[in-house]
Amino acid sequence: MTQALKPVIVGAGPAGIRAAQTLVAHGLRPIVIDESARWGGQIYRQTPGNFTRSSTQLYGFDARKADSVLSVMDSLLSKVDYRPNTLVWNAEGGQLDVLHEGHTSVVEYTDLIVATGATDRILPFKGWTLPGVFSMGGAQVAFKFQGCAIGQKVVFAGSGPLLYLVAYQYAKAGANVVAVIDSSHFSCQIKAVPALLNQPAVLAKGVYYLAWLKAHGIAIHHGATPIEVMGAQSVEQLIWRNSQGAHQIDCDAVATGYGLRSESQLADILGCKFVFSKADNSWIPQKDVAGRSTIQHVYLAGDGAGIQGADAAEWAGELAGLALIEDRQQKQQTNHATRSAELAKSLQKRVAFGRGLSIAFQDPQNWASKTTDDTVICRCEEITAGDIRQSAHATAAQDVNRLKAMCRVGMGRCQGRMCGPAAAVLLADCTHQSIEKVGRLRGQAPIKPIPFVQSPALKNIPSDTKEAT
Amino acid sequence: MSSSPLSCDVAIVGGGIVGCSAALALRKLGKSVILIERDLCGSRSSGVNYGGVRRQGRSLIQLPLAQRAHAIWAKLPELLGATCEYTRSGHLKIARSEADLASLIAYKEKTASFGLGLKIFTGHQLRELYPWLSERVVGGSLCAEDGHANPRLVSPAFARAASQAGAHLLERTQVIDIDHSNSNFTLKTSTGQFIKAPILLNCAGAWASFVAEKFNEAVPMVSAHPTMAVTEPLPVFMSLSLGVQGGGIYARQTQRGNCVIGGSRGFALDELRARPSREAIQLVLARSVELLPQLKHANIIRTWSGTEGYLPDHEPVIGPSRTTPGLFHGFGFAGAGFQIGPAVGEVLSELATQGQTSTPIDGFSISRFPRVLSSITTTLGDLP
C-alpha cells in the first residue's frame, strides 16, 4: 500500500464508521467528515456530551449494536482524522469543499467513501407546515438527541419501519401516543412475512413494537391516510381517512414520513451514474456489490445509495473499505475475498428483506390524485399541488427539472431534499408517466446553503470578465 | 427508425431564445417551420443565463438590434401570454474608480444618438438613492428602461408561443447530418427523421460551429461558462439590475427576494455541461459583498453555469452564409444574447423570407473571419 493514499470518508454513521475501522485495520488513516457534532449518524445519534441517558434508554433493542458501533469509533479517534460539524457542500477535481464553523476549505482525497445516509421521505398533506408537524426522523432526533417529545399528544402517521419504531420509542419513554396511522393495509404486512423472514430478528422487533403498542392500548389504524392537520397557531387536530370514512383526533403533534430517501447529492456532484431503483421508487447512485460507484476510487456505502437500513450500512461500509484496499493493492488477499463474499451475501439477503418491506409498507393509495390543489408541496417556495398541476399542464413539463424551472418547486433552501419525491409522484401522476420517466432533480452545489464567507485559500482567480446579459 | 422526410419552408437548428423567436416570427409571416433542439427548448444558455435585459454597455453596432429588441420586450405579455418576471427596473452600471466613471461618461456620449436615456451619478448621489450600495462605488450610469427577467420562463415561453403559432418543435432530437443539394437542405436527426427545407437557420448557440463547418465556414468560436449563484430569499431591497464597469460581477434581486449574482468563469464538465469552479464561486461571493454589504449575512442556496459561444471580437455572427445560399447564421452572443435574442429572431425571419432586413447587421457578417480555420469548440477557464 502506498503512503500517498488520502482516503476520505463522508459520514460517520454505521457505514462510515465500519469503513473507517476497515481502513485503519489496513494501516490507513482516513479523514472522517461528519456533519454532526458527534459520530453515530442518524440511527445511532448521540446525545450532547453532558446527557446521561443509557444506551438502552436511547436505542432500545439496538443498544448493543449502537454501543458496538459507537465504541469502535471511540477507539478509532486517535487513528483517524475526525472532523465533526463539517458539511461537504461541493466536490471538484479530487477535492471536497467543506464548511466548518462558517468557513469553507478544501479537503483532498485519493479515495472517497460516500456514506451520506438518508433523510425522511415526505408525502405532504394539508396543514403539514403547521408548527407541531415533524418528520418521522425529526421526531426521533428530538427524542434521541435532546430527550424531548415533539408534543403532549402525538400522532404518528405515515408508513415504513420507522413508524412503529418511533411510536414505540415515544410510548415506552412515557409520551402520550394518541394513534398510529399506517397507510399500508395489515394484509400487506402479512403478505410480506415470507420475504421479511430474510432478516428474522428485524422482523421480530417490528412485530414486537406493533404488539407492544396494541397491548398498551394505542390505537393503530391500517389502510389509513392523514388528510389534514388543523389548528390556529399549531397542531390541534388531525383528520384522517380509511375505508370507513373521515375521522378526527385531537393531538398537538404529528410525526410523518413514508420511508426514507437517500441523500445522494454528493454522489451526483461527483458525477456518479444513477440508476432507477424499484425498491426505493427513486433514482439512486449506481454501485457494484462491493460499493464501487461508476467513478474510479469513489465508493458508496449505506443508505446514501439506496435504503437498506443500519445493519446493512455496517456491512456495506466494511465491504466498501475492503474494496478500496483491494483496488489499491497489487494482489488480492484471500482472507479479504472470504470476508467480502460473506458481507456481500448478507447484503444480498437484505435486498430480499427490502422487497418484503416494500410490500409491507406502501404509500397511501392514489396519494397524488387525492392530494388537493391547495396542499403545499414545496414548503421553502410555497408551491402547492395545484401550482404543480397547473404548471405541468400549461408548460407541458415532462421532467422534474423542467417542472422546477417552471414553477420553482425544489428551488428553495432545501433544494428539493424534502419536496423532490412528492413533486416527482405528482408530476408522474398528472403526465401519466412513471416515476422513473419524470427523472430526478439534478444535484447542484452547494448541497446545503453556504454563507458568503471568504475562504483563506483563494488562489488561481481568473481575471475580470465582461458583464454577461 | 426511418420515415418519409418532413418538408417545411424553414428549418431551424437550436431551440434557444434566438431559434424560438425566429420560429415565432416566421409563423407570423405564414411560413412553415420545423425547429430541432437537442435538449428542451430554452434549457441551455437561453434558460440559465443571468436574466439581464440591458442595452447599456453594448457595442455601438449592437445598439440598433438592442433597440429593436427593446420594443419587443415591451410587448412581451401579448407575445408570450405571460410577463415572465420581466421588469424595467433600470440597469445601473457601477464605477469603482474615477477612470471607470470616465469610461461610463464616454459611453454615454458615444451612444447619445440612440436615445438610451443614460444618466450619470456620483457615488454620493447613488448612495442617497440606493443606500445599500457600498462605499466602494465611485459613481455609475443608470439606464432607467433596462431591466431583468426570468430566463428560465422567458425562453421556454418563446418556444411555446412558436409551437402554438404552428411551428413544429422537435425536442430531444439532435441533428446528426446536414446535406445541401438542389437548393434544399436535408437534415438527418438522431431519431432517424429527415427534414427538408430550402432555408436553414443556424441558431445552435455554442454548438453552432457544427453547422458552420458543414458548409466550409468554420469560425474561431470558443465556449465559456459563467459562474452563477442565487441566495435564499431576502427582504427586497433592490429592484435594479447591477453591473460593474470593467467586469467583475452582476446582480439582481427577484420578486421573491432571491439575489441572483454572477461573474467570473466556470468550467466545462463535458461538451454539453458546465459548472462553476470553487474559486469562481468564492470570488463572486467576495466581490458581491464588496458592493452589496448586506449580502454578508445571506446564504447561497444554488450555483450553476452554462455554455456560451464567444468569437474573438465578442460580437455575434448574424446573417447569410458566404458559402451556401439559403443558410443564415445567428450565434456567438458572447454571454450577452438574452436581451437581443428576440430581435435577432425577427431579423433572421426577414432574411429567410426577403433576403434582407431593416436592421443594420453588417458588423456581424461571418466573412469578417478568414476562411480557413479549424474551430475550437471548448475551452476551460478564462477567455483570452
Structural write-up:
The complex is a heterodimer of chains A (469) and B (384). With 469 residues, chain A is of the alpha/beta class. Helix content of chain A is 36%, strand content 22%. Chain A has 16 helices and 23 strands. In chain A, the strands form 7 sheets. In chain A, strands 3-2-1-7-20 form a 5-stranded parallel β-sheet, with helices on one face. Chain A has a 5-stranded parallel β-sheet with strand order 9-16-10-11-12. In chain A, a hairpin with a 4-residue loop joins strand 21 and strand 22. The C terminus of chain A is likely disordered. In chain B, helix 3 packs across helix 10. By secondary structure, chain B is α/β, with parallel strands linked by helices. Chain B is globular and about 65 Å long. The C terminus of chain B is likely disordered. In chain B, the strands form 5 sheets. In chain B, strands 5, 6, 7, 15, 16, 17, 18, 19 and 20 form a 9-stranded mixed β-sheet that branches. A 6-stranded mixed β-sheet of chain B has the order 9-3-2-13-23-22, with helices on one face. The chains are: A alpha/beta (469), B alpha/beta (384). The interface between A and B is large, with 40 and 66 residues. Strand 23 of chain A pairs antiparallel with strand 20 of chain B, so a sheet runs across the interface.
- Sketch the major β-sheet of chain A: 5 strands, parallel
Q: Determine the N-to-C terminus distance of chain A.
A: 52 Å
**Structural class assignment of chain A:** alpha/beta
In which range does the helix fraction of chain A lie? 25-40%
Over all CA atoms, what is the radius of gyration of chain B? 21 Å
Shape of chain B: globular
Shape of chain A: globular
Strand order of the largest sheet of chain A: 3-2-1-7-20
Rounded to the nearest angstrom, the distance between the terminal CA atoms of chain B is 44 Å
Give the percentage of residues in beta strands of chain A: 15-25%
Structure class of chain B: alpha/beta
Query: What is the count of helical runs of chain A?
Result: 16
What would you call the quaternary organization? heterodimer
Largest interface, C-beta within 8 A: A-B, 40 and 66 residues
Number of H/I helices of chain B: 10
Provide the low-confidence segments of chain A as ranges. Answer: 457-469
Mean pLDDT of chain A: 92
